[in-house]
Automatic annotation (TrEMBL):
It comes from the Eukaryota. GO terms for molecular function: thiolester hydrolase activity. This is Palmitoyl-protein thioesterase 1. InterPro entries: AB_hydrolase_fold (IPR029058). Keywords: Hydrolase, Signal. It comes from Paspalum notatum var. saurae. Residues 1-24 form the signal peptide.
Amino acid sequence: MRSRRAALVLLLPLLAAAVQTSAALPFIVLHGIGDQCANHGVATFTKLLSEWSASDGHCLYCTVSLLHSLPSKHSSAPIEMLVIKLLSSFPREIGSGTWDSWVMPLQQQADIVCNKVKEMEQLRSGYNIVGLSQGNLIGRAVVEFCDGGPPVKNFISLGGPHAGTASVPLCGSGIFCIIVDALLKLEIYSDYVQAHLAPSGYLKIPTDMEDYLKSCRFLPKLNNEIPEGRNATYKERFSSLENLVLIMFEDDAVLIPRETSWFGYYPDGAFDPVLPPQKTTLYEEDWIGLKTLDEAGRVKFVSVAGGHLGISKGDMRKYIVPYLVDRSSSKTLWWSISDLVGVTWHAARELALGLTESDGAVLGSLSS
Ligand SMILES: *[C@@H]1O[C@H](CO)[C@@H](O)[C@H](O)[C@H]1NC(C)=O
């Protein structure tokens, strides 16, 4: 132990140098529904990834919650009336993560993120995206739709409903969820719901594909699913990613089916069987370049233990961090040194803090 500590002392100045001269690209974290950057789970997640990869992480879409301004009582009016009344009386400030992630249409959320990344000087020469659940669709929209945005290099997706989901994310209890549940009882592909409930933008009921393709406003466009609406630019941009890491949670009960995290889904018209990604039309006809990327060896299909977003620290290090650290070949030697220092640093911190490595889920309390 003593000699280990001595080695640490010697290595610490090196660490400082490694951090200062770090050339790793910055990354952004796009959180899931009902979450916000200030929440403990996503804040810790961003901080740990930043530390472990020696890169700058930014959780975007970060503001205060407006949920405290929700009315605490509701009348006995019919539920749909209540919904409409409540929705129109809520403050609609842009950028309130918790509230807007539920009610702001995804295209609008993606436009906001697109403008933010264009304004961020530090992303100029490229950046990586880490998406959580619904945040993955926003991230993909930024890759595909954001004209003039900085280049996205690696895209690491945790529990993303990439091919849609056949069920709405769990909301919970309380007045807010009463509203959401009531909205979902209305027609999900109606203009009203499409304009007021973000998840309706990727709800894909396999037995109702006609309405989905006609009226769902977000995912059909994002996935180039509409025959007469396919845009080669989306494909070109998406297939220029250096790596696409698709992490699926083995016990995910929020995404239906969980294979949607890998772009797997039900066939049109039926709820079984779940098709693996390579057997879907999106892949076979290469609508967005997933096949192109896969054949170039740039898609990593990863399956980890745990429920929705319940990633362990060990799996974060194994499947996310390697794509955030600088891996350019000219820096190989330097980085093998700094990797060593990084590992040592981690050990030093734990010694200093008297911690042992715990492998508990960081994001375990997140809803979606
Ligand atoms: C395809 O998307 C690009 C980028 O958003 C846009 O500039 C272009 O006009 C689109 N093309 C068509 C045919 O819609």
